[in-house]
Amino acid sequence: MDILLYIALGAGAGLLAGLLGVGGGTVIVPVLTFVYTAHHFPPEYTLHLALGTSMASILFTSVASLRSHHKRGAVDWSVVRRLSPGIVAGTLAGVWLAARMSTNVLKLIFICFAYFVAIQMLMNIKPKPSRQLPETGGMLASGGAIGVVSSFVGIGGGTLSVPFMTWCNVPLHTVIGTSAALGFPIAAAGVAGYVLNGWRLAALPEHSLGFVYLPALAAIAIASVLTAPLGARMAHALPVAKLKKLFACLLLIVGTRMLISLF
Questions:
Q1: Cα-flanking dihedrals φ and ψ of residue 45, to 5°?
Q2: At residue 212, what are phi and psi to the nearest 5 degrees?
Q3: How far apart are CA 253 and CA 140, in angstroms?
Q4: Where are the membrane-spanning stretches (predicted)?
Q5: d(CA 152, CA 47)
Q6: What's the pLDDT tens digit per position in 191-203?
Q7: Angle 242-253-217 (CA atoms, 0-180°, nearest 5)?
Q8: How many CB atoms sit inside 10 A of residue 245's CB?
Q9: For the chain, what is the total number of helices (H) and then of strands (E)?
Q10: Which of 79, 120, 130, 223 could crosslink 7 through cysteines, CB 3.0-4.6 Å?
Q11: Chain centroid to CA 149: how far?
């Protein structure tokens, strides 16, 4: 049953990655947290394991998604190059901090993040027509902020980079494709950090590589790689604005469920 759940989770994450340019961690993290808790994994490391496993799965999902978007000319590689240095530095710093926080503190950060993004999507705030991407310093700072928050909540950065680029009037399909490409440097830095920070902890469950639980990773990665190209095709054919509202509702449900779990 666990493997089937991981496969279903990976399939959903792959669709989201291709469709909205997100890594799927917003769904993967809370579900894995519930599963790991049910299996009585060490409670002080439950969310750390969910975050690390989510980051590792995004390595595979982002590659499958960005390849599909690149074929359609929807990846702005200049934006990827300008944001990536700040993203990598921010992600490594964020992982170091996250490894030293309690599970409940990380849960609160994730809940606040989920509500913030959901409300932003539902309100559909429009940017000024004149707003453009910032210069080098602004891009480094923006990438750093995306990296830090992504490492805290185990996502590929899409739920931050998509609103950021949209706010700077980048065309929507280019936003989604570029966000999918940005998921890889975030995930690579995040995985390195979560593996190293959990490397010598004896309390972690069997088949763990640091804070990455390998059985869940394998099933999620395989399923997400298969479904990400389908999501990318849908992104170029469906009304993404409506799908974003559905995603916002999903975020509210997930955040509320995790909030209830705190009590």
A1: -120, 5
A2: -110, 120
A3: 33
A4: 7-33, 45-67, 79-99, 105-125, 137-155, 175-196, 208-231
A5: 10
A6: 988 899 888 888 8
A7: 95
A8: 15
A9: 10, 2
A10: 223
A11: 10
What DSSP string runs through 106-171? Answer: HHHHHHHHHHHHHHHHHHTPPPPTT-----HHHHHHHHHHHHHHHHHHT--SHHHHHHHHHHTT--
Q: What does the pLDDT look like over 108-156, one tens digit per residue? A: 877 787 787 778 778 866 556 667 888 888 898 888 888 887 777 666 5
Where do we find the tokens 């996502």?
A: 155
Q: How many domains does the chain have?
A: 1
How far is Cα 183 from Cα 84, in angstroms, rounded to an integer? 10
Q: Which of 49-53, 142-146, 154-158, 219-223 has the least mean pLDDT? A: 154-158
Distance from C-alpha of 189 to C-alpha of 123, rounded to nearest angstrom: 32
Q: What is the pTM of this model?
A: 0.75
Amino acid at 220: I
Distance CA 1, CA 18 (A): 26
